Amino acid sequence: MPLLSANHIYSPEGLLTDHVLEVDAYGLVQALRPRQGAEVTEHHKGILCPGLINAHCHLELSHLRGQMQRGTGMTGFVQELWAKRNLLSPADQAEAAAAVMEEMWWGGTAAVGDICNSALTAGPKRAEARLYTHSFLELLGLDARRVPDILAQGEALTRDFQGLSHSLTLHAPYSVSPALRDAFYARPQGRLSIHLLESEGERRFFAHGDGPMETFLSTFNLPRLRFPQPDPIAYICEGLAPAQPVIWVHNTEMMAAEATQVATGFPQAWFCLCPLSNDFLHGREPKLPVFLPWKDRLCLGTDSLASTDSPHVWDEALRVQALAPTLKTHDLLRMLTTQGAAALGMAGELGIFAPGTRPGVLLIQGQEEVEGPLSPQARLRRLF
Ligand SMILES: [Zn+2]
Question: Distance from the CA of 74 to the center of ligand 1, in angstroms?
């Protein structure tokens, strides 16, 4: 049975020295404990860390990797997405998702929170036993008359994901009618993952009813919807139970008072940041100082491969570190592991070396100084 040691071993409370990690031949954790005397261990130079959690991705868009134009904004992106998303057969799209899941696992990812608009990824998820997935089955629609149809389609999708961890969720404030929001929140909830304040256009659409988002929506034959509040956060939180676990995704345009409002009003709210995707689509990134008081509520996601080149959440952590130089290595590792796992409802099972769990074991090399920021040179290797 391997007895692993390293310069440091991750725990949620800090980076431990003079400890050993006991795992069996399959990576099942037996113990994380102080080193005893002259124990012979398999020693590694670097930091041992559990597998990483990618709290937000869109595996069903994996086949669009490298196919999309940079800087088109939300409406340009969605238009290009619709034009290109079905150029490949469903079988080829599913194959691309399966290949990305394997790539993620080898790159150190243990679990993904994956947004689904179809059953495309259900097969690949059943076939890939190593990567844990929670599928957020997304509902959206601005036509109040279609609410019963939208809920019925969601229920049908739920059946496609039977046997896999999943829950229904809403897409974003601007894509959900008051009727759909109210009908959805009136039902029993699983975990939610909702896109929020991804672009400036979202705020403008709510406040003034115009801008690029209105231009885009006006190209469809939709009811001319005016949202009842000028504020996307107040709108989407209306009727939401305070104890409801929600991953708020992107938060690119969120301001400090808004982060405080969400974090204090909803104790199980998580903020998921995906800065590389935000930069690709909008040329903007989340304002990290806004989230520093809430750094224990942060997790990270890659978004889709249609809007980022890398499926590895590690690359998002390096970007967040660059945006917030005062964050320490351990802060980033917490977001990547323990906090991401809690956001997906996997606290105590993933993102931590807890006895009886198989969170994966990664070796981080090239990080000489652990008290400071995460080094851009730091690299991951999967041991288990
Ligand atoms: Zn997304």
Answer: 11
Please tell me the distance between residue 2's alpha carbon and the centre of ligand 1 in angstroms: 39
| Residue 372 structural domain | 1-50+351-384
What is the distance between the alpha carbons of residues 270 and 263, in angstroms, rounded to a whole number? Answer: 8
Helix (H) or strand (E) holding 115: strand 109-116
HSE (side-chain half, CA atoms, 13 Å) at 30 = 11
Cβ atoms 274, 306 nearer than 8 A? no
10: CB partners within 8 A, 6+ apart:
16, 47, 48, 49, 50, 330, 333, 337, 353
- Ligand 1 centre from 304 Cα, in Å? 7
Distance 191 CA to ligand 1 centre (A): 15
pLDDT digits (tens, 9 = 90+) for 224-265: 667 888 899 999 999 999 999 999 999 999 999 999 999 999
Ligand 1 center to 36 CA (angstroms): 47
Contact (Cβ atoms closer than 8 angstroms) between residue 322 and residue 289? no
CATH code for the domain in which residue 39 is found: 2.30.40.10
Same domain, 252 and 374: no
Q: How far is ligand 1, taken at its centre, from the CA of residue 267, in Å?
A: 22
Q: Which of 328, 299, 331, 330 lies closest to 316 in space, CA to CA?
A: 299
The pLDDT of residue 222:
65
Beta strands at 52-57 and 109-116: parallel, antiparallel or unpaired:
parallel
Ligand 1 centroid – CA 31 distance (Å): 37
* Number of structural domains in the chain: 2
Whether 223 and 97 share a structural domain: yes
- pTM of this prediction exceeds 0.90: yes
